[in-house]
User: Which sequence fits this backbone?
């Protein structure tokens, strides 16, 4: 599966378009990580537990989007975008979406 945030795949021609596909997940860290993040917020610096939370969430949302595209017969998802929102303290939703397409090399 080809995944890209641009509107086409270089060297490939779009043969079919299946529409918008998406995937989302809501993730939360445990209370201990939340306490540690609160202390780090006071003194400054990267909140590594939240960085990991969002990285895991992006991977899961992308995987779900990719699965939906495969079910439609696509071999690529183009113009991928991500949206993130806080659901509650310590929990975030990540939503991935793009256009499912079938591409072939130019000249085929």
Assistant:
């Amino acid at each position: 599966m080809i995944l890209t945030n641009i509107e086409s795949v270089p060297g490939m021609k779009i043969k079919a378009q299946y529409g918008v596909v998406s995937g989302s997940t809501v993730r939360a860290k445990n209370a201990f990580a939340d306490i540690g993040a609160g202390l780090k917020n006071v003194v400054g610096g990267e909140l590594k537990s939240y960085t990991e939370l969002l990285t895991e969430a992006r991977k899961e949302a992308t995987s779900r989007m990719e699965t939906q595209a495969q079910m439609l017969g696509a071999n690529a998802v183009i113009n991928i975008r991500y949206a993130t929102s806080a659901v509650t303290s310590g929990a975030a939703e990540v939503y991935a979406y793009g256009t499912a397409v079938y591409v072939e090399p130019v000249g085929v």
